[in-house]
Amino acid sequence: MRDGSGLAHEIVVCGCPVCHQAGANKLITAFAVALSRDREQSEPEVKIRLRMARLDGVCTQGPEIAIDGVRHSRFQGAHVLPIIRELRGTECREAAEPLLRTS
């Protein structure tokens, strides 16, 4: 998903009240911290944009996120760092693939 600005990936965390109740704020904080720490170690060639927005999906199974437009329900904080590494290509794809599947 590259464009002229170098953006390669986008992670959207649903910010609706139901997802908020299910832990969306903690999730976006975990992504922000992990991205910040990742940048401190080296300047990544692959950029990841993180934002919060209403996804209007299956929020009753929240928190819901979208990675490059693909939605994932019941996303857990333990998957944050492996997903970032996967998107940046710093881990074997097969190792992180199960984390990308919807529960």
How does this structure look, described?
- By secondary structure, the protein is an alpha+beta fold.
- It contains 4 helices and 4 strands, in the order βααβββαα.
- It has helices at 17-21, 24-41, 80-88, 93-96, and strands at residues 7-14, 47-53, 65-67, 70-72.
- It has a 4-stranded mixed β-sheet, with helices on one face.
- The longest helix is centred in the first third of the chain and has 18 residues, at 24-41.
Summarize the structure.
This protein has 103 residues and is an alpha+beta fold.
Produce the secondary structure layout.
Layout: E1 7-14, H1 17-21, H2 24-41, E2 47-53, E3 65-67, E4 70-72, H3 80-88, H4 93-96
Parallel strand pairs: 1-2
Antiparallel strand pairs: 1-3, 3-4
Residue stretches low in confidence (pLDDT < 50, at least 5 long) are: 91-103
- Based on CA atoms alone, the radius of gyration comes out at 13 Å
Task: Tally the structural domains.
Answer: 1
Q: Looking at the chains present, what oligomeric state does this protein adopt?
A: single chain
CATH topology (fold) name? Glutaredoxin
Number of helices: 4
Termini Cα gap:
24 Å
Give the % helix: 25-40%
> Per the principal axes of the C-alpha atoms, what is the gross shape?
elongated
Strand order of the largest sheet: 2-1-3-4
Main sheet overview? 4 strands, mixed
CATH class: Alpha Beta
CATH architecture: 3-Layer(aba) Sandwich
One letter per element, helices H and strands E, the order comes to: EHHEEEHH
